[in-house]
Amino acid sequence: MLDKRRRMTAEEMQELTPAQRRRMHRRRAKRRMLVRLFTLLLVCLLVVTLWKNWDAVAPDKWWGNLQDSLAGSTGRYPVDVSGVNMKRLTLSGKYTVTFSDSYLTYLDDNGGEVVRYACTYPSGLLSTAGQYVLLAEQDGRRFRLNTRSGVVFEGTAEYPIITAAVNAKGQMALLTQGPQGYTVQVIVYDRRGKVLYTRSRNQQAVDVALSADGSQVGLLSVQATDGTLYSIVDVFSLSSTDTKPVCSHTVNNMLLYRLEYLGDTWLTAIGESGAVMLDTKDGLSTVYSTGGMRLLGYAIGDNTLALALRPYGDTGDGQVQVVNKKGEPSCTVPFSGEFRQLSSNGKRYVLLTDSAVTEITAAGQGKQAAVDNDGQQAVLTGHRVVVLGLNRVQAYDLK
């Protein structure tokens, strides 16, 4: 019997009957078809994997990592910022980012300057998600999308910009003044500047938010009718031409001013007297009240919200409440001293006062570190906290 895995010689082929030859050709054609289908399946799987994980494998990201490895660290904390009008300290991927009226600067884990980009936005807005940093000129028209590796896109809005937001896919949402006959306009772009969605409205919108998966845009609007103040959250699908929102929620006599996604389908809107948690999938909402306490600051994580509160009339001390998506407090952490800032790296929070930084999770208080009393802003990186002071940026180990 011939070994079917061995290629037959010409003499052996001549000995086969026509029926045997036809069967052999059919088997070979079937094998070729299976190989082609298997190859096509592998290509499709590779394309889908790249599409879903583009932010992790995008050339600008691994090129930045390669540049970091070749250059090495060029400095250490503390970083001198005396004489610089520093506006923000934030996180972008694995980097700590400082934003001033002149530069956007990326710092590595040690405080070394990785790269610096010129930025001359007099009234600059900054929004970050994943590796992307969106800069926009409030009341102006310029906006720019950055990563550590460089400028991804730079554009000019048709109308003056009110506020802006970005998600981890690099999609950008601009809330601008509206064209003639409208109060505001929202425009959503992809990371290369292609317009994905646009809508003009007569309601006065104050904030905009993009879902992490890029399927929704949320708008926060306010209006007053017959002496009653209304705050309205509307959510629209980017893939639909329907003029009606996929869900909407209105709150009476509560001024909401900040809107952000807690997850792909959960939105939170922050106000002076509480917050609204909205599940955009089923339209269910929960209103969380501060209980008559003064809201000092807030931070929004991946699935929770943290609020820094103090009783009215008190001049010091207070507490931080971590609230889940359903508006239920998961922990309360008291603090002493003067409140400075509350921020989040997604999973954990950091509370900055005039004397300490404190790590906070949904389970309660974590590690702490004493800090200089001039701290203005802080970000949590690993097990260290980076603090922006009046004249320097310093890192503190949590213990």
TL;DR?
This protein has 399 residues and is mainly β.
Protein architecture, described:
The protein is mostly beta strands and 399 residues long. The chain is 15% helix and 50% strand. The strands form eight sheets. A four-stranded antiparallel β-sheet has the order 1-32-31-30, with no helix packed on it. A four-stranded antiparallel β-sheet has the order 2-3-4-5, with no helix packed on it. The chain has a four-stranded antiparallel β-sheet with strand order 6-7-8-9, with no helix packed on it. The longest helix is centred in the first third of the chain and has 35 residues, at 18-52.
Distance between the termini: 76 Å
Largest sheet strand order: 1-32-31-30
Regions with little confidence, pLDDT below 50 for 5+ residues: none
Number of helices: 4
Average pLDDT rating: 89
Overall geometric form = globular
Relevant terms:
399 residues; mainly beta; 4 helices; four-stranded antiparallel beta sheet
